[in-house]
Amino acid sequence: MKRTGLFIVLLFLCICQAINAQQNKLWTLQECIEHALDQNIQIRKNLLTNDRSRINAGQAKAQRFPSASASINQNFNWSQSSGTGSSGLTGSNGSNYSVNSGITLYNGSRINNSIKQAELNIESGNLSLETIKESITLNILNAFVQVLYAEEQAKNSMKQIESTTQQLNLAKERLALQIISQSDYSQVKSQLATEKLTLANSESQLALAKVNLMQLMDLPVEANFNISHPDLGDNLNQNRVTDVKSLFETSLLIKPQIKYAAVNKTIASYDEKIARAGYFPSLSASAGVSSAFTGQSTDLYFTQISNQIRPALGFTLSIPVYQKKQVKTSIALAKIGYDDARLSETDTKNQLRKNIEQACQDVTSAQTEYEASLEKYKATLEALSLSEEKFKQGFINSVDYMVSKTNLIVAESNLLQSKFKLIFSYKVLDFYSGIPLSF
């Protein structure tokens, strides 16, 4: 009894520990991506489509082999009989047995082309799956960075509140000593209220950013969801020099959407070859063996079966003469489909080039913006430090001090935005270079 109670206590403690560990879990970028890829419905449906393609490819390959069938037919017959002194129904029975096989010898390479097309459909499905995964990965990265940005924004807002609270306490003391006016004190108090509102907005944006990330991960929204904070380092600006042409050439070789478009164009070319096979004659061979038994014979069953074995071999040549423009129409439609696939490939390449051009320009702009924001922040921080000293000594009023404080808040917010914009632009550039997305 004591052992049972001890076991229950240990089990309860283990469950509590597991729940606590789950609550304290910090999701890394890689874990977010892996969970999203594992749970995404679109990926699961694409996997089912790939399974269908593999089954269809097996069916296409099976057309090369001969077919085989067997049949057994048992008949019972009655006929009206009449004779001297008697009349009625006379019965008889019989059995027929046959085994038949057939194979296509030639049909304008329709079977071979169908097999090649089916195999390409499998490759196309795999490339489509990789394209979906890359798109989801990029969306998760963007959402993850947005959470990091929102968290930093909330932390900065909290720091501003702490700083202004200290200034408010100082202003309260100075008001009691009648060193400053009630108006100056009210200015500081009003600034604190404004910063509290900013914090509330920052926390709201953080909550929305987390919800967006969890939804992209197909993870039920949890209040205790938190992400890990990667070490971004102090020297964020890598001063990258982007080369659109080189990056585009690299992406053409590695990006699945380019390979997907090329494979689909090849698949479309086989539609025309398969349709054109309708102009050619088809040759097939058939073979079979049959035997029969009838109850009207006096011979024994197996004797009849042995004596009535009939082998058969035949060839069928089917020559198309007039098909009501069906083949011609199929070829014309296949050509249109090929042209459409070719245009889709060109459009995919153009879209990739545009995305890379935008990514390279984003990196250049983000680097310049970050450096300018950093310089502005440093200058504003220095100006605020001087204003704080002057405010403490009574050389400036609260209005001038609050102006300096507001300038710092704006500069800090701009620096934060430019910081994560730069981080994300670098990661996008890595994405098109084929570098795995991680921190």
Key structural traits:
4-stranded antiparallel beta sheet; alpha+beta; Outer membrane efflux proteins (OEP); two-stranded parallel sheet; 439 residues
For the sheet with most strands, the description reads:
4 strands, antiparallel
Distance between the termini: 52 Å
How helical, in percent, are the residues? Answer: 55-70%
- Strand count: 6
Given the structure, what is the number of helices?
10
Q: Give the overall shape, derived from the CA principal axes.
A: elongated
Q: Would you identify the CATH architecture?
A: Up-down Bundle
Mean pLDDT across every amino acid position: 87
Question: Which regions contain 5 or more consecutive residues with pLDDT less than 50?
Answer: none
CATH class: Mainly Alpha
Question: Could you please describe the fold and organization of this structure?
Answer:
This protein is an alpha+beta fold and 439 residues long. The chain has a single domain (27-74, 92-433), classed as Outer membrane efflux proteins (OEP). The chain has 10 helices and 6 strands; from the N terminus they run H-E-H-H-E-E-H-H-E-H-H-E-H-E-H-H. The strands form 2 sheets. Strands 2-3-5-6 form a 4-stranded antiparallel β-sheet. Strands 1-4 form a two-stranded parallel ribbon. A hairpin with a 2-residue loop joins strand 2 and strand 3 (86-106). Helix 2 (29-39) crosses helix 4. The chain is elongated, with a radius of gyration of 40 Å. 20% of the residues are buried.
